[in-house]
Write a structure and sequence with these properties.
Helix content is 0%, strand content 46%. It contains no helices and eleven strands. Strands 2, 4, 5, 6, 9, 10 and 11 form a seven-stranded mixed beta sheet that branches. A four-stranded antiparallel beta sheet has the order 1-3-8-7, with no helix packed on it. The radius of gyration is 13 Å and the shape is globular. It starts with a strand and ends with a strand.
């Protein structure tokens, strides 16, 4: 069973940057589209970014487009989310996720993902 472990969260001032990592276990990481989602207190989980198996195709929520970059290193079984120009409204727990079915691109829809990490807290505040 796949395991996903996020890291890199923390407290940052508005305008700052963070890079989240998601380490995946198993030998099939490169066969699956991956995604990042987030959930703020009192809100539903929302899509942030998704990436194809090879990393050649990406997709972003409008709220983060131009500020966040999703990438992956299949040799290291690791997914990344580079977050720049952070805003207070980016405060949330961030989750990485692995698609349910292999050989598919990343997806905006949480029901397309089967495996989830435990989440990492990102707080943007002065």
């Amino acid at each position: 069973q796949a395991q996903l472990v996020e890291s890199g969260g923390g407290l940052v001032q508005p305008g700052g940057s963070l890079r989240l990592s998601c380490a995946a276990s198993g030998r099939t990481f490169s066969s699956y589209g991956m995604g990042w989602f987030r959930q703020a207190p009192g809100k539903e989980r929302e899509f942030v970014a998704a990436i194809s198996m090879s990393g050649s195709s990406t997709d972003y929520a409008d709220s983060v487009k131009g500020r966040f970059t999703i990438s992956r290193d299949n040799a290291k079984n690791t997914l990344y989310l580079q977050m720049n120009s952070l805003k207070p409204e980016d405060t949330a727990v961030y989750y990485c996720a692995k698609r349910r079915i292999p050989y598919r691109a990343g997806s905006r829809y949480s029901h397309d993902y089967e495996y989830w990490g435990q989440g990492t807290q990102v707080t943007v505040s002065t």
